[in-house]
Amino acid sequence: MKPRKSAKIRPRKRSKVLVVVGTRPDAIKMAPVLRRLKELPELRVRVLGTAQHRGMLDQMLAAFKLKLDHDLDLMTPGQSPERILSAALKALPGVYLEEAPDLVLVQGDTVTALAAALAAFFMRLPVGHVEAGLRSHDLSQPFPEEMNRTIIDRIASLHFCPTAGNRKNLVAEGVSAKNAYVTGNTVVDALEELRKQPRPWEDRKLKSFLQSSRGKRLLVFTCHRRESFGAPMRRMVAALDRLVRRRKDLAAVFPVHPNPRVRACADALRRSRRLLLCRPLSYNDFIRLASGADVILTDSGGVQEEAPTLGVPAVVMREKTDRPESVRSGHCVLAGTRTRDIVRRANALLRRKPRPSRRNPFGDGRSARRIAVLARRFLREKAGRI
Question: What is the pTM of this model?
């Protein structure tokens, strides 16, 4: 009797993950996830960029040495959220058909993330949401991000929550607890990666200003949110002006967002040798700058996560925050948008440095690893391998 031929072992098909990015925060927070996903041999990882923010996205891709497999190049002058959404929804299905991903991974609450999740939903593709569960419980703050992330979380099959509070929000909204995981925020991973590889200053104007301002207290100011446009932003900028004029011991840097409405507010500032208005900084320069600050004034969500990681106190110029952990831990204070209140809070932090919790509320720098492992497990189960 002839021996039976051994059956050929077919190579296991690799599951495909399509990662979608469009803005500066997307690239920053997805970079560590992409690295971890690519370390898993059973996964094939592809990257799609919408270029919702063309220049700022390209800047971050270069900083983290990332390349796009698909570039929709959607940004146009004076674009609106609805224009980006409609253009992305028109372009994404073609890429999805070409790639046939097993999982679409989106980050945060941008229009890019919303469009990618909606397009995947219409094509019955599972979605994983990095930075899931953030809530202010007010659709106007932040606008339109609160609505964007709420819809994404209704669509997603996998929810990667930065904090236990974020997971609690999702469960309260009816999301299955077994699909929501507390991973930490990947911005901590990104920051730790950059800090291990210090680089020289890229903006010469900034470097020169900091050299001439030695011995001064350093204030870093950022504002860009849509709900801040108009009177709130004018009050924020007025607070910066008042602080610089009244405190001779202070030097301030204001990286001005390219949005014309932000630039118009910045242009109204009275010039001072102790105030630098500069173009948006590379992430390397911004983190180096923020690391050396005595206080940060911001309406940014991301800076509320970066400040605790860097150990720098921050005044949050918003009426409500979707990151209450930063306030509860003592790293940030919520000031609202009135000039007087912002100035008072900033002066208080400059007079007496707070003693925040030593524990970073946004994680330990291993968030991306957890997300990659959970995504792999989901795909194994989807393929019937477990």
Answer: 0.89
